[in-house]
Structure formats: C-alpha cells, structure tokens
Amino acid sequence: MARPLHPLLACALLPLVVPACQLVRGVAEAPGKVVGAVTGGAANAPTIDLDDVRSMSMRYADRIVAQVDAATYLYTARDPSPEALERSLMWRIGAAERAFEMAAHSHPAAALADLVALCSYGRKLHETYWTKTLGENDRPMIEVWTSLEQQGLEAVSRHLTAEQSKALREVLARWSQGADDPDELLRSGAPSFEELASNPTAGATTGSLLGILGLDPLDSLEPAAREVARTRELAERAVFLAQRLPRTLAWRMELLSIKTARQPAVKSVIEDLERTSKAAESLAATADALPEKLRVESDLVLQRVSTELSAQRAGLVNDLEKSSAPTQALLGELQKTLDAGTRLSQSLESTTRTVEALVTNARAPEAPAAVESAPKEPGKPFDPAEYTALATALTGTLHELDTAAANLDRSLPAVQKSVDEAATRVDRTIERAWRLAIVLVLVAVAASVLGFVIVRRLSNRAQRPPSPA
C-alpha cells in the first residue's frame, strides 16, 4: 500500500512542477503564437495549424512516391527495354529522395510549397524534354505529375490563406512560362519554392508567402522549451525518413545491379556463364541419352549385320542354284555313261561267254564212236553276222563311254570353280561383318569416354569461380 506524500515534500517539489507545466504548455501553444505573429494578431485573421500542415506534407510526399512508382510501371509496360527500366528506376529514386527530403523540412509550410514546386518541375520536364525523346511512351508520367501538381495546389488552398495560395500559384505559373529550355531543366534539377519566390520577377505579392515559408514555430518559445520541441520534431523527421529509407535503398540496389549487368566485362562474363551452363546441360542430356543411343545403335548394327548375312546367304544359295544346273546336267550325262557302261559290261560278258563257247566247240576232240552211247545233236553252225553285230554294239558302247568321259572332264572344272567362288564369297561376307561389328563397338566406347571427359571438364570449369574483370 502506497504511503501518502508528505506535505513538506510536496511543497518542495512544487517549484519544479510549475515550470515544467509551463514548458509543456509553451511547446503546445508555440504554433499558435507564431501564426498569430505572422497574421498580425488580428481578431478575425485565419489561423494556420502548422502541425496539420506538416502531417499533410508527409502524406503528400508518400502519395507522390506511390503515384510516380505506378506511372513508371506503366511506362516500362509500353517500353520493356533495359534502358527504359533503368530510366524508370532513376525517376523513382529521384522523386522519392527529393519528396522525402522536402517533407522532412523543419518549416512545414516551406515543405508543402517545395513539394508543389517539385510536381510542377516534374510536369514541365516531361512536357518539354522527355516527350520529345520518348514520344507517347512518356504519357503516363506527364499525367501523373499534372495530377500531383493539382492535388498540391488544392492542399495549399485548404491550409494557407487565399492571398498566400494566389501568390504561390502566380510564382509557379511565372516560372513555368520562363522555363522553356529542356536541357537547362534537366541539368538544374528540381528547385525549391524559396528559390522560385526569391526571383526578382516573382512580384511583390509574395512577401506574406515568404514570411509563412520561413516561419519557425519554435522562435517564440523559451530556450528550454524550444530545445525540447526541436528535439521532438527532429525525432519525428528522423523516424519519417528511416521508415521510407528501405524502399529507396531497394531501388538503388536494383539500379546498381542493372548498371553493373550492362557493363561490357560483366555482360561478357554472364554470357560466358550462360553458354557454359547451356553446354553443361546439353552434355548432361547427351550423357543421359547415351545408353539409349548405344542400345539403338547396337540394335541397328546387329540388324545391318543380320541383313548383310541374309543377303550374302541368299546370294550364295542363288549362286549354288545357278551352278547346280550344269551339275545336274553333268550328273545326267554321268548316269547315262554309267548305264551305257553297264550295258557294255553286260554285252562284253555275253560276248565273252559266246567266244568261250565257240572256242570250246572248236578245240574239243572227237570221241570214239564206240564209246558214244547215243548220238548227239549237231551244234549251231558258225554265223559271221552275230560276230558283226557284236562288234558294232561294242564299238557304239565304247564311243558313248568316251563321250561321257569327255563331258565329265569338261564339267568338273566349272563345278569346282563355282564351289570355290561361293566359299570365297561366304568368307568375305563373314569377315566384313566382323570388321564392321568391331569398328562400331570401338566407336561407341570412344564416344562414351570422350563424353565422360568433356562432362568432367565442363563441370569443373562451371564450379570454378569467374575471374574478376
């Protein structure tokens, strides 16, 4: 349970609490005092909430960056070239950095006026310079900068007085009429509104506007209160910039990567890596398909060998069939010769028996008449016609035998030659088939070894880090 504060202690702390309350009240009333000093303290004078102007300026800066980002995407959709992408990133980065820097200005009214001047500059630059260079592709950028400028003028009309709003419009219109040199616009960059209003041709109506732009809300505060308020505002602006820094850094990194990739040395290295990667992929695909190709090639080789052997075998059979006709004729002649020899031998045998019988009858002695018990029949008398016919048949048989032997002598060399040619052709076919099979096997083995060596070398080269340019 808390103990009640001692009355004496409360009295001792009272002198410290009262100045602190006055400090807080002074910080809270500072913008109103400043506005009162600018407007002359009139009772009916319009008031300006600088805190509201500051928060509105920050929101306006965010809106500028978001809409410019969207417009650059439309631009790159019309022109998808690497140069257009790099140009769009430069536009985003320039608009974001300039808008965030202006929104974090220590003077809220000056921040709002600078943002409106930034939009006017962007519209004028794209109308006079980039349209001539890019043509209709730059139309989204002109439209977005025109829309953002109109939004800023409407915000000025809501937060500043009518006289100050009119003076701001006159300054921007006079600057837009005089800025007719596109190259000078591109070189000079976006000006601040204070630079535009300080121009001698700006007119005398900008006095009150410059007063509000250079207004410091903390000038009327006591030193301690002013330091506290400035510390708070500084922290707010730092947080505002820190929250939006990652987006700008991301665009910076993307732009740097694009510029680096477009360098000749880096581009060459990237192209070499792409070619190496494609070669490695091709070799990997070839190595994967190599077993199947070898199987297909081996099947084709076996098919070709089988076809060749079949063709050679068919040719051999055909040759044998062609050479068999003379052989058949020779065999027929031989058969006829053998038949004639058989008939000749039979005729000779018959002739021999006949001759033996004749000789026996001619040389046999006459038997005594007393011994003969019975009379014998007289033998056949000698007939020269039989001997003549026998001699004629023997001569014809010998002639046929000579003819058959001559035919056999003529046919045997042709048959031997046909058989030898057929055997030689078969040997050549088998030898050619074996040579073809051995060559194809050696080629397949050499291709496998070569593919393996190339894959290993390219893999080692791809894993090796690229040498610095």
Describe the fold and architecture.
The chain is mostly helical. 82% of the residues lie in helices and 0% in strands. The protein is built from 12 helices and no strands.
Give a short synopsis of this structure.
By secondary structure, this protein is mainly α. It contains 12 helices and no strands.
List the helices and strands and how they pair.
Blueprint: H1 7-38, H2 50-78, H3 82-103, H4 108-134, H5 139-159, H6 162-178, H7 182-188, H8 193-197, H9 207-213, H10 223-261, H11 264-363, H12 384-463
Helix pairs in contact: 1-10, 2-3, 2-4, 2-5, 3-4, 3-10, 4-5, 4-7, 11-12
Features:
single chain, disordered N terminus, 12 helices, mainly alpha, 469 residues
- The percentage helix is over 70%
**Rg for CA atoms:** 63 Å
Mean pLDDT: 75
The sequence of SSEs as H and E is: HHHHHHHHHHHH
- Integer count of domains: 2
Sheet-strand content, in percent, reads under 5%
Instruction: Please report the number of helical segments.
Output: 12
Largest sheet: none
Low-confidence stretches: 1-46, 366-374
- Termini gap: 75 Å
